[in-house]
Structures are given as structure tokens and as C-alpha cells.
Amino acid sequence: MTNPILEIxxxxxSFGHNEVLKDISLSINKGExxxxxxxxxxxxxxFLRSINLLEEPTEGHILYHGENVLKKGYDLTTYREKLGMxxxxxxxxxxxxVLENAIVAQTxxxxxxxxxxxxxxxxxxxxxxxxxxxWKARPSQLSGGQKQRVAIARALSVDPEAILFDExxxxxxxxxxxxxxRTMQDLAKSGLTMIIVTHExxxxxxxSDRVIFMDKGIIAEEGTPQQIFENPQEERTKxxxxxxxx
Length: 246
Ligand SMILES: Nc1ncnc2c1ncn2[C@@H]1O[C@H](COP(=O)(O)OP(=O)(O)O)[C@@H](O)[C@H]1O
Ligand SMILES: [Mg+2]
Description:
The chain is α/β, with parallel strands linked by helices. It contains 9 helices and 10 strands.
């Protein structure tokens, strides 16, 4: 039985005359891990940003548990809370320490009491390997990999139904990539629904239930990791992979 959290139907997004997303449809089931691969400029970030409505789609529908969130009058509060986002550039609050970074959305947005928020933040920070000795540190005192793990703990702390990751390891020094990917792999195993834009092909192959290859604003091919990486059907998928898998 499939149980879609999100159904994206015929999504289009233009910036002026530039049609960046051209009719994208995708269902995302609970617990699924979907990787999105594709060349720079193919619309991957715009797609993620349109899913969580950081960009307003030009056309199409987004059904969240069967309800169209783009319809007039739909209350987006819950929808926005339930989709976490992890960016390439971390986007931590530089003026707050690690622990406060993982608390603030819980107390302000979810109105949790301080004690509960703190307990949840600590649990999630520990889960990503950022235990007590880091809690008082400022983001500026952390490595990129540590910052990204805090950003993941922060996203987890508001009980998301899914987390969207936009190239979470692209801004990291090579030696930091592994620790973030391992953290994400643990989350994938724990049953979290994840949509991950990544250039880490080995990782995508290992953790994904499905791989989406985007090219020029469309889903050019999708399938299991085996289908996409070992037996791609489309010429442009083959070309793209040739550049990444040497
Ligand atoms: N806010 C924006 N305004 C205008 N054009 C944009 C904006 N965001 C993205 N684009 C354009 O959309 C296209 C796809 O970009 P993007 O979604 O960032 O691709 P990717 O993440 O696959 O590299 C690019 O041509 C980019 O210039
Ligand atoms: Mg991008």
C-alpha cells in the first residue's frame, strides 16, 4: 500500500519568460528516500523550493495528504511546519549557540515550553553526533560538517514529516562530507521521509528508494538506484552519469 504524503502534479515554475520547471509530477510516500540528481541549472533547487513554497509555483497542484495546498484560502501553517529544509549553506542563526539553534523554532513556531524544547533539541543534537560539549558553541566555532549536523538536528526538532535537503554536502571540505552523509544515512534508516538533491552518487545509490534525474526542468528519468545507475535508459542520463561516475 502506498501512502503518499505529497503528490506533485503538473508543476510548472517560470521566472519571467524563463520556464524553469516544465510539468513535473511526483508522489512521495511516507518513509521514502528520494534522491534528485542532475546538472547545475536543471531546476533541482527550484523544484525543492516550489515544494515547500519558498517559490510560488506558476501552475500545477501540490497535494498534502490529498489536499491541494495551493488552493485559495488553504492554511499553510501546518504544511510549512511539516516540511523541514536543509540548505547547502546551513543557514544557522549565528548569534545563537548550538543548543538555542535547535530550540528556537520549537518555542516560537510550535509554542512548546522551554523544558520540553530543550529535551527534544538535546536528543536530536546527540543523534547527529553533536553532544553536550558543543551545545554552548557558536556556529562560527564549528566546522562545516558540524554546522550541517546542527542544521539537521534543528530540522528534526520540529517533528517534520519530511525533510528536503538541497545539496547538503556541496559547501563542505571533502573530509567533512562523510560525517554528514553518515548522519543522513542513519536518518534514512530510521524511516524519515527525505528528498535529497545531491551530487554524491555513491550515497544516492546506497540510501535511495528512488532516484530522479532532472534535465532542463523535467524529470527525464526515474527509477530505483539500480535502474538509474546501472541501466539508465535515456541518452541524457547516460551522458550525465558518465561525467560523475568515472
Ligand atoms: N529567483 C530566481 N529568479 C530568476 N531565475 C531563477 C531564480 N532561481 C533560479 N532561477 C533560474 O532557474 C534555473 C534553474 O536553477 P536551479 O533551480 O537553481 O537549478 P539547480 O538547482 O538544478 O542548479 C536557472 O536558470 C536559474 O538561473
Ligand atoms: Mg541547486
